[in-house]
Design a protein that fits this description.
It is built from two helices and three strands; from the N terminus they run βββαα. The chain has a three-stranded antiparallel β-sheet, with no helix packed on it. The protein has two domains: about 40 residues, no CATH class; about 40 residues. Helices cover about 55% and strands about 15% of the residues. By secondary structure, it is of the alpha+beta class. The longest helix has about 35 residues.
Length: about 80
Amino acid sequence: MLCLTQTASDTFQVMATQPETYTSCMHILASASDISVLVPLTAIQGLQVATAIGICWATGFAFRALGQFLNHKTSNESET
């Protein structure tokens, strides 16, 4: 990883001396191998996370649709 500084003309330049830790950097240039260390998921694990998120969204959608159906049915019964 390389720590970058932003110049006055909104371009980026690699710092002459790299810091010990990257917490003080405003911008970091990372390679693919650096990113794999930050997000250590395999493709299978990523698929499991995506599936869990999809199930949560589908469950929420189903409850919302059920609530709207019951609300609509209740309001139609009260009008007659």
